Amino acid sequence: MTTTFVHADLLNSHYVEWGAFLRDADRWSSQQIADYQLTRLQHAVRVANETEGYRERFAAAGITPADLRSLDDLRRFPLIEKDTIRDRLRDFSREVPDREYVTTGGSTGVPFGFYRDKVAFARELASKAHQYHRIGWREGDPQLVFRGLPITSPDHVQMVPEFNELRCSSYHLVPEWMERFTARAFEYQPLWLRCYPSSGHIFARWLKDTGRRFPAIKGVLCASENLYDFQRDLMREVFNARVFSHYGHYELAVLAGFCEHEDTYHVLPQYGLAELLDPDGRPVTTPGAVGEIVGTSFLMAATPFIRYRTRDYARLKGVGCAACGRPYQVWDRIEGRLQEFIVTGTGRWISMTAINMHDDVFDHVAQFQFHQKERGKVTFRYIPRETCGPDQLMDIRRRLMIKLGDDTDLRLEAVSEIPPTARGKHRFLLQDLKLAFGDA
Questions:
Q1: 1-335: which CATH architecture?
Q2: What contacts 357, CB < 8 A, 6 or more positions away?
């Protein structure tokens, strides 16, 4: 007797209902989106006003929820920082059914805890799945996963039948274990690889360098880190598949995923309202301009997030996508977290996206990481390959200095290992400077 497999999320009524809603809303007009967002904004602000913290902030700004009559009125409400909510969590939270305390280290590594309810989390999962559906992913498709999930088995591999996924430890991306992960992949035959971009890139680099094969897959699903061009290009080459990325965060205020036709981020308007603001707090409206992502969540009721400063940056492409027809806010790319900028000696900020190399400059190192402790000084840590000699290091320095400029002191340091973070991520940059919104 055979039983039909049902993905665990499809047993969650909140997940199923929200997924159906998003499918119906996928072709809304601009006016339908605006009407919905205003209704949800008004609700979110009323809910936030039930907390002592937000009520105080609204009163100090001389505004009440009744003053929110248009989308533009949202700009009259104050912005809020992570530190403010973290330091007065009780004052910025509400008692709701099934709320749970969750934490995220965030891009700065500073723990941040808040309350999230189970309905919000189910809708979060359904929203991400809705974006994956654009490129053919379906619940229950077999997928191999490299993410920061603790795996205690002797071979650092865990089969999770309720999601039909084979999880491999992102903390053990060394040849011995990647050999094992590859063998298990051939036994398992995944349709998708789901990973941190850094983990997927390390694995792809090892496959290419060793000439190993990997089962044919439909795509690579990247999340939780910025996806850089050099990572995307290598994974697309090695896996011969589409590399899909989405932007999101634990606070559930903004979600944006690639279009099915092009590598641009489409902001999901039913999830929350996303603003791109310049350092003076003004809306970014010019295509090509970069702004900080500020989000108001439509999902979070336990700890509301109203005009929440994410400290992440994106580059605006415009509104509306000619390729897919959705009238969504579209970003060219995520420029990165605040902690993914290098600060030069004269105070210039250089995004890690600008350090992308589209040539063979890093072919002679197995892994690398930038580290900045002082303005204008950067250390390039690298694990050398056998082919890495003085000439190759001189070439790496020369090409990096073209990107960094002569107001930056660059030091190269050979290391034997570059350990992942506590969450299993392999950071491109360790930034120890205390950067703040508006400094750039």
A1: 3-Layer(aba) Sandwich (3.40)
A2: 230, 399
Instruction: Give one word for 421, left, alpha or beta, with left for phi > 0 and alpha for psi -120 to 50.
Output: beta
| φ, ψ of residue 205 in degrees (nearest 5) | -65, -40
Helix (H, G, I), strand (E, B) or coil at 56: helix
Strand blocks (E) in 93-231: 99-104, 112-117, 143-147, 157-160, 165-169, 192-195, 219-222
| Domain residue extents for the chain | 1-335, 340-431
Q: Is 303 exposed, middle or buried (0-12, 13-18, 19+ CB in 10 A)?
A: buried
Going by C-alpha positions, the residue among 142, 295, 159 that lies closest to residue 215 is 142
pLDDT tens track for 246-296: 999 889 999 999 999 999 999 999 999 999 999 899 999 999 999 999 999
- Tens of pLDDT along 75-124? 999 999 988 998 899 999 999 999 999 887 544 444 588 999 999 999 99
- Say what the pTM is: 0.81
Looking at the structure, give the CATH architecture of the domain made up of residues 340-431: 2-Layer Sandwich (3.30)
Domains 1-335 and 340-431 share a fold: no
